[in-house]
Amino acid sequence: MTTQHDPSGTVPHAGPVSACGTPYVQEPESYDGLLLAGFGGPEGQEDVIPFLRNVTAGRGIPDERLEEVAHHYRHFGGVSPINEHNRELKAALETELRRRGITLPVYWGNRNWAPYVEDAVREAHANGHTRLLGLATSAYSSYSSCRQYREDFARALLNTGLAGSVTIDKGRQYFDHPGFVEPFVETVGTALRELREQGFDSGETSVLFCTHSIPTDDAVRSGPRDRDFGPGGAYAAQHEAVASRIMEQIQLQDSPAGEGSTVPDWEVVYQSRSGPPSQPWLEPDVCDRIAELPGQGARAVVVVPLGFLSDHMEVLWDLDEEAMEAADEAGLHAVRTPTPGVHPRFVAGLVDLIQERIDAVPAAERPHMTDLGPWYDVCRPGCCENIRAGFKPAAAGLVP
User: Fold this and answer.
1) pTM of the full predicted structure?
2) 80 annotated ligand binder
3) Where is the stretch described as Disordered (predicted)?
4) 72 is in an annotated binding site
5) Is 333 annotated as a binding residue?
6) Residue-range domains of the chain with CATH
7) Is 149 annotated as belonging to a binding site?
């Protein structure tokens, strides 16, 4: 099969199959390494402020203000669990790849703390691996959760001088892949059944699907420009679609014949906003909604970290500390469900995605659990723009 070139642009730093820019690759690709890309986190008290300087680089935020956020990390000894979770995920991926006979070494690099993406790229090149498939530890579309990882890849290649010698493609967003969704169906369903056993019926329970808030300007620009996702852009639409699908699956499990509804009210809420009060961010805030639930007849709340792969700082602090405190103040019985972490179905699903890309599975045959998917192999022009920073060089997508 001959792959047709997408006339809207070219794809920098891409492998030969993805370079033509079609939304979905049409020919098998030969990779020799997998690049697991993470956010990064401090691993001791002395790392906290340097790490936060990296996260906020270019914004001119003084250390005094960074210290206001640092206390979240200091509460846990200055250690974010995110690096350890990525070590666990890397090991789980390696095990699953070996089990399937896929001989791809896994390299791990972060945006904001060691090991950096540049370190991973150098290591891969030193080992003779130059055709990398990137796998970001984020399931959704937005600037910070997708495009910025593509910028990380481009920056790493340029900073190391390996642009032209190493190529990096990026696996598709997997927000609605069964491997990501099914662990949530399992854990949310378990939480609701246990609440019923404790005497909380569906009419007295609310389910809050939580994700990181982002500036509204970024939200409306998430996803490709030629699709209308509504006022919250692809980011909000993806979360809403996945949450809806989770609750539908739970209802089918509880009522296979489709008789009656056994699921409580649910909604998507946001957390962890950090911008100035004058800047609009996605709402409602999780703690604000928790405070309102008793007035709507709720006695219990299930808090679901839908926007997160693992229990990192935004989960441990913003949900396990602040949201649970808000629930206690509201007199609600609260349960926080697990993140996918290294759930076997999630790990297997990630390897499914790797195999899918290697084999160039046609889009019509790719598993997805919402009408929004399957997402693109190659990001479309202008996807997930950050209007404050402009378009920086990015791999794995059509320019800009």
Assistant:
1) 0.96
2) yes
3) 1-21
4) no
5) no
6) 18-41+80-173+343-365 (3.40.50.1400), 178-336 (3.40.50.1400)
7) yes
